[in-house]
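Sequence design from tokenized structure. All designs in this work follow the same two-part layout: the structure record, then the generated sequence. An example of the structure record is given first.
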């Protein structure tokens, strides 16, 4: 019997091939139907890989993880690429010219982002005119507040690059040729792995290269992955891999369900704790009548002690009431 070919020792290549061909045929048919009824051409459809994990990530990271691809999603000759830099902006334009980098369409500094592109309409046009945004990694923490949520809704978050490297051209080329995984605090993350204009074979090539890098950037690796699906921007998702649903090693409930012996021990501990608590409460429970009697008994004992020392002692208030006015 022939051995099943696997991607990263887990995902069946045969299942991926079937899912990619079915999704590509369905999405292409829908796109043709849409183009016949609409006057304006529709935007490019991406093929997404959906990763569902068992345990959520506790922290949210601004910088995404770089995922290598064999066939890039962006072609700088067709799609404009914008670079956001520190100030002064002219210094980095000269830096690109000195390295003979011509695939960056526009350079925008932080000052210009705060001034010229401060208005909502100007930022919207900047987002629409460029297909990809790169940014100096030193200014990445400032950008969410300057750009706004539209960048994140459009999935065009600026990609951090190091502009101080000697091989600046190679750094920018690798950034454009890669895809990116943005880690969130939920249980589902999506990564672009292809275009609808790609052939199914090219999408499969990207899947084979991207899977190991994606899994290595997930806490717990394969032990924490519940399922993998692929989809386009508007289609349903098709499954390509899912973990076992039991509580065995690597299963859906591995490490999340207590064993029978452990659950019985915890139940016995809870019962003993509850019994001890009930006994303590019974011992320490005092009725209001008993409290009143205790206070009256303590008051009587104090009075007897004062009389034994030197007779009854009048209070300061009673002494003042007994005096006549004008007399000491």
């Amino acid at each position: 019997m022939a051995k099943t070919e696997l991607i990263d020792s887990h995902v069946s290549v045969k299942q991926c091939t079937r899912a990619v061909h079915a999704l590509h045929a369905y999405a292409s048919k829908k796109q043709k139907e849409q183009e016949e009824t609409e006057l304006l051409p529709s935007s490019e459809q991406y093929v997404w890989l959906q990763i569902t994990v068992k345990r959520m990530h506790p922290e949210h990271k601004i910088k995404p993880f770089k995922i290598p691809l064999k066939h890039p999603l962006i072609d700088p000759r067709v799609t404009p690429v914008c670079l956001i830099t520190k100030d002064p902006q002219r210094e980095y334009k000269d830096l690109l010219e000195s390295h003979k980098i011509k695939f960056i369409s526009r350079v925008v500094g932080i000052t210009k982002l705060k001034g010229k592109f401060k208005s909502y309409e100007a930022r919207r046009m900047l987002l629409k005119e460029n297909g990809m945004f790169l940014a100096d990694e030193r200014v990445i923490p400032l950008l969410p507040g300057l750009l706004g949520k539209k960048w994140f809704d459009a999935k065009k978050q600026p990609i951090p690059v190091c502009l101080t490297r000697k091989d600046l051209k190679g750094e920018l080329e690798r950034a454009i040729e890669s895809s990116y995984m943005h880690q969130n605090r939920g249980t589902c993350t999506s990564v672009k792995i292809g275009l609808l204009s790609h052939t199914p074979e090219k999408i499969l090539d990207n899947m084979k290269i991207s899977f190991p890098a994606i899994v290595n950037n997930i806490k717990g690796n394969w032990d924490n992955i519940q399922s993998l699906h692929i989809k386009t921007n508007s289609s349903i998702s098709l499954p390509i891999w899912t973990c076992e649903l039991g509580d065995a090693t690597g299963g859906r409930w591995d490490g999340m369900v207590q064993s029978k012996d452990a659950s019985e021990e915890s139940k016995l501990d809870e019962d003993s704790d509850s019994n001890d608590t009930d006994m303590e409460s019974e011992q320490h429970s005092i009725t209001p009548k008993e409290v009143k009697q205790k206070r009256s008994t303590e008051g009587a004992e104090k009075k007897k002690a004062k009389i034994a020392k030197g007779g009854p002692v009048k209070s300061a208030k009673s002494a003042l009431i007994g005096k006549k006015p004008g007399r000491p």
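Residues 13-37 form the longest helix (25 residues). We note this feature because it recurs in several other targets discussed in the main text.
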